[in-house]
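Objective 1b. Sequence-to-structure analysis of Asparagine synthase C-terminal domain-containing protein.
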Amino acid sequence: MLRGADPATVRRAVEQGEPLPGTAGFAGALDGRLVRDVLGRQPLFGTPDDWGFTPDAAAGSSVPAGHVREFQDGETVDRRIWSLPDPPAATDDVAAVAAVERAVRDAVTGVDDRADLAVAFSGGVDSALVAAGVPDAPCYVVGFPDAHDVAAARDAATTMERELRVVELDHDAIERAVPEVVAATGRIDAMTVAIALPLYLVAERVAADGFDRLALGQGADELFGGYAKVVDPADDDRVEATTVRGATREVIRSLPAQLERDTLVLRAAGVTPVTPLLTDRVVEAALPLPDHLLATPERRKVALRQAAAGWLPDLVVDADKKAVQYGSLVSRELDRLARQAGFKRRMDRHVDQYVASLVDAV
């Protein structure tokens, strides 16, 4: 009835209004109502008497993160019971970084490293931290042959002395997987599809190789200031906040929708996602970080990189990272395929139209 936590823990969190009760996220049915954790790390859909963990398993919309969905006077009502904590900015840099280091090390080394686990590995500090916590798990990178992520992952795996398996993409794989990704996510826009495709295709290969779980570095960019738009938010119209810390918090609020998309597509491919950098303790360590420990014009994810120093090789700690749709070159090749199919860039949302045509064809 619940995923991600036991009923006693969730019940106590409900009763006490505790948003971060020491879990890695949870969702499901509890005492006649639906519950979903404050960051929406587990998707949940439907009503208290007709619900499921995928959109097609229930007749109803997604339960908002941090809410319970219950019946009141015969109506379905969503009631917020958890909000993300908003602690003051830390004033002791050394203590703040040490808290991040402890939380991250505990999270990644605490992953159950049974033989059914693999790691999604891009060569950046996020996935490298996860890989360091499970030293016997094979690492997988996905991308077209000339992709940034493939080259970066090879360099990092060599430096870390890790086994790396490359999931090399081609146009046939993209065209085949697009309708499957759309079916899993229920979304057809090009951005969603471009992000979800590499996740789906690497997870599909992981499952085919006999692994049931895939560990990922999800959440680190949002929690620790990994996006370019948080560096100078006052001059960036992609965010409303005017401080790095405010912009980072704004980005964190986007996590529920992103995690819902990613979890649905990974499960559709046959694996269960494991996201140690999104555990409550890591979130608690990230929230108080001041601006200069999040992002500066010279460096992003400052505290996380400082926490990783001494554990990971310098090449990996300082590695430049691209969003998965760009680092894998899936976004570029989707655009190329769309134009080859007659959907030119002068057309409105030409890649969206191409995606829709692939779905219609099946």
